[in-house]
Amino acid sequence: MILEVKNVNKVYPNGCHALNNVSFNVDKGEFLVIIGLSGSGKSTMLRCMNRLHDVTSGEINFEGKDITKLKGASMREARSNIGMIFQHFNLIPRRTVMTNVLSGTLSKTGVIKSIFGIYSEEDKKKAQDYIKIVGLEGKENVRADNLSGGQQQRVAIARALMQNPKVLLADEPVASLDPATSHSVMQYLKKVNEELGVTVICNLHFLSLVREYASRVVALKGGKLIYEGQPLDINEEW
Ligand code: ADP
Ligand code: ADP
Q1: What is the pTM of this model?
Q2: pLDDT digits (tens, 9 = 90+) for 226-238
């Protein structure tokens, strides 16, 4: 087990109870998909896992250590193990693929280096390797805003890999892409999962994609966990 979510509650300052006593485990090497309607708490769950949000109560144990209460350097260290990509890619539009990927490099203290940072030859070699893994070899010097949506998401995957995460969180990574491009991005996520051994936790709402890519599924409804199991048994009404 790499992650244990235990009795997690998240109440936003406006009173919205986005996660209600949610518990589930994630095994090392899994491709876990979280499903649920819009507003069911999927995004909140991922944001609590990498400390973009704090839980209101409960524990999130990463490799046996509760990360919800860590602060400062120990929080940054735990966080460096947990990378994230988003629906809208969040690249720096006017910068090249190489610069965007390098911007995911962490310094030794776990802080993201500035986009104007000086990168070592080792960092550049690593960036080159990840650019190749996501199929963008030859596009190193192309500006991010000149790429298609699918290519931009692949840059975001390579950028997230620069911190050597053990877990990659993907928040609706294909929600703004067409079906063919969605498959391509999902295949690269699968490749990262299988070839690099990175555990993937991905929010998705297209059930056909869920059935094809998930090794296991967790379903949320109104902030509560309503299902944990095989993708074949998932229900259209969730
Ligand atoms: P999903 O990812 O499944 O669409 P979210 O986690 O984004 O669900 O949202 C769960 C619930 O929490 C929704 O009711 C949403 O409106 C609410 N919510 C999300 N983010 C915030 C926030 N920053 N402040 C207040 N309420 C929020
Ligand atoms: P997404 O599809 O990315 O989940 P949303 O429209 O649900 O987009 O949310 C966009 C942003 O607004 C997110 O950062 C979310 O946390 C925040 N948000 C969502 N619902 C609320 C809310 N009721 N109050 C405040 N912020 C919210």
Answers
A1: 0.92
A2: 999 999 888 887 7
Contact criterion met (CB below 8 Å) for 166 and 38: no
Mutate to test the pocket of ligand 1, among 16, 35, 50, 88 (most ligand atoms within 8 A of CB): 16
pLDDT in tens, 12-56: 999 999 999 999 999 999 999 999 999 999 999 999 999 999 999
Nearest Cα residue to atom 16 of ligand 2: 44
Is residue 40 in contact with ligand 1, taking CB distance under 6 Å? yes
Question: 132-149: per-residue pLDDT in tens?
Answer: 999 999 999 999 999 999
Give phi and psi for 61, each to the nearest 5: -95, 120
Name the strand (E) or helix (H) holding 160: helix 149-161
Residue 195 has a CB neighbour count (10 Å cut-off) of 9
Is 87 touching ligand 2 by the criterion CB < 6 Å? yes
ipTM, two decimals, is 0.80
**Interior angle at CA 63, CA 134 and CA 173, nearest 5:** 30
